[in-house]
Write a structure and sequence with these properties.
single chain, alpha/beta, Rossmann fold, 13 helices, binds iron/sulfur cluster
Length: 343
């Protein structure tokens, strides 16, 4: 769970109807658009100040593209992203540059965002210098030492190069770089999935501690519900470009309502061996369909054990509130979970 209590109920970040469609080009002499990959296809979400929203789903569900679209690292095709009252989607380059320090990203592979020929100290000092956030060289060096200390690395790390660090230490450098501009919001894309299991918990704990100390707001993107559930106040479950269930993390993990969330959760091992041997696993049939040609109706109907072809293959369910703060996109939520059907 997040370490910082939400400062207020106003969302710091909100997304409304966000789409990211990538054109599929064909042709030798003239590029023709022959279709679109609908990586993100109409996502609504809100993140309140000081809280952590976990975004979870299989590889290819669009969660990383969504994270980048929220920061406008990729351009949304449609929809609106608002950050602290500013319409991010309407900003020009200079407006985006002014806002950028407040919204930062942690990547799965910190090596991808670090120049192998640049020392860690130089990599951390660069954004501080570019945004004029410290007085002179001495001020930048002091800030670099503070950042290294905040992520549990010694001051001597400033003189070393990325390849000299372990995976866990490199991710600490990636976190320090994201914090260099004192952001309010950090979007962490699979922050621990490239790390050894033994190191994952240390990095998760570091992120939680930093949130508490610095009052950060997080969006944590992961394919592994086990990572997200311990860090998040609320969880949004994504399937094929859309959110299928959203609500408080603890409630979703205790009683998932959407069939896809049930399947995801059933894949998470349980520590108690007695429970682990008897618990029911839901094995999804088939692969994730292509986002270039998503199924009609409910996008999950080709794999859903509860699908009714007459309804599910033709009508796309919308997210609707089933209990306060809990939304599910399924025509048969109540039937599946022991209540009345909405159909
Ligand atoms: Fe399954 Fe139908 Fe619900 Fe989709 S709408 S999740 S296919 S039961």
């Amino acid at each position: 769970m997040s370490g910082a209590a939400p400062a207020n109920d106003l969302p710091l970040l909100s997304a409304t109807g966000v789409q990211v469609h990538f054109p599929i080009k064909r042709g030798v002499l003239i590029d023709r658009t022959v279709g679109h990959v609908k990586a993100v296809d109409g996502v609504d979400l809100e993140v309140r100040q000081g809280e952590t929203l976990g975004v979870v789903g299989e590889s290819g569900c669009g969660k990383s593209t969504l994270g980048r679209a929220l920061l406008r690292l990729v351009e949304p095709t449609a929809g609106r992203v608002e950050f602290d009252g500013t319409d991010v989607t309407a900003l020009d380059r200079s407006g985006l540059r002014r806002l950028r320090p407040r919204m930062q990203m942690i990547f799965q592979d910190p090596m991808a965002s670090l120049d192998p020929r640049q020392s860690v100290g130089a990599a951390l000092a660069e954004p501080i210098r570019a945004h004029g956030l410290a007085e002179g060289r001495a001020g930048r060096e002091r800030r670099v030492r503070e950042l290294l200390d905040a992520v549990g690395l010694p001051a001597s790390a400033a003189g070393r190069f990325p390849h000299e660090f372990s995976g866990g230490q490199r991710q600490r450098v990636g976190i320090a770089r994201a914090l260099a501009l004192s952001p309010d919001l950090v979007i962490a894309d699979e922050p621990v999935s490239a790390l050894d299991v033994s190191v994952q918990a240390q990095v998760v704990n570091l992120l939680v501690d930093l949130q508490r100390e610095l009052g950060l707001t997080y969006v944590v993107i992961a394919h592994d519900l086990a990572v997200v559930r311990h860090m998040s106040d609320r969880v949004a479950v994504m399937y094929l470009g859309g959110v299928v269930e959203q609500g408080p993390s603890e409630e979703i993990c205790r009683e998932p309502l959407h069939p896809y969330t049930k399947a995801l959760l059933s894949a998470v091992p349980v520590a108690d061996p007695d429970v682990e041997t008897v618990r029911e696993r839901i094995i999804l049939r088939g692969d994730l369909p292509s986002p270039a040609d998503p199924p009609a109706g409910c996008r999950f109907h080709t794999r859903c054990p509860f699908a009714r072809p007459d309804v599910c293959a033709t009508e796309r369910p919308v997210l609707r509130e089933v209990t306060p703060g809990r939304t599910v996109a399924c025509h048969f939520t109540e039937t599946i979970n022991g209540g009345e059907s909405t159909k």
